[in-house]
Specification:
Layout lengths: L2 H21 L6 E5 L26 E2 L2 E2 L16 E8 L3 E9 L17 E7 L12 E6 L12 E4 L5 E2 L2 E2 L3 E7 L2 E9 H4 L13 E11 L6 E6 L15 E6 L2 H8 L6 E4 L2 E4 L7 E6 L4 E6 L5 E2 L7 E6 L2 E6 L1
Parallel strand pairs: 1-15
Antiparallel strand pairs: 2-4, 3-14, 4-5, 5-12, 6-7, 6-13, 7-8, 9-10, 11-12, 13-14, 13-15, 16-17, 17-20, 18-19, 18-21, 21-22
Length: 331
Amino acid sequence: MNKKSTFIAAIITILFAVNLRAQVTITRNSMDIYKISTEEGNAMIVDGKADENFWSNIPFQNITHPLVNDAFTETPPATNGYEAKFKAAYDEYYLYTYIEVKDNTPIYFDGTTSATNVDNIEFYFSGEEPSDSYKNPKNTQLRMFPGVSDPYKNYATGYGYVMTMVYDNLLSGFYYETSNIDGGYTMEAIIPWETVLPEEFLTKIKDGDKILFDINASNCTTTTSGRSVILGWSTPDFHDWTYNRYFGDLNFKGNITSRVESEQINHLKYTIRNNTLQLFNAELLTPISIYNISGKLIKSTTYNSNGIDISNLANGIYIVKIGNYYIKINK
């Protein structure tokens, strides 16, 4: 191919990429995160497992969006069964997370291998928009590794604000454990807000406010090949981890009891008759969750025209989540 043909081909490639960029519609992901009590009997045990009461009522969020590089011409990488999902809760001091990854050949960090040539989980935080790069001094990228053991359980790498809080590769108050499961691994972590958000944004950690957030999962096949699969929680932005400009919204809510007290709805009409909860203006197959007054999940189902059988519930007050709405019933 002569120089003129090469130049024309290059122009066509650039125009195609620009046109594809213009056609991309971005709808940023959003999730509600609920404040949780860490009193005795409900404390989080950092052991890489989610079998304590702390996690029992918190749903999983899937990390499913394949991210591709900035050229806009590559297709998302094949995931080959690689999957990831997470749970999250908060209080005024910490973000609490639990992550499950399905990966038959994880490459674990041993303290010597490059941080990007082993499997890893990356968190991104920002207190304001626009968030054009995780390297922005007000943004944070925090990287965690499966399979860690002492002295790496508060080992931290990343970019942005968090790295001003790291001393000798250790992050104060940050702690995580991993555990092996069938076909993969889990990670459970406590992340202090003050280490990932500048002081000016800490006032946002309250009911009714929000920050920007994302979480990515990375898979490696060897300790020299680099990352082969990148999955993100938030909307796919057709950028890889080096330019994570489309964060999702992390919306802070009160605990489940106070949330229901403040967000009860009146437009959903219902009756309870013969141990059946009947809803009159809910759509069929709407997800239904029933909690006791302390917030424990008692029953999960979907709505159908026959109503919801509550014969196995003891007499008392219950909170019923219908899709994204709530009612309080008294059986």
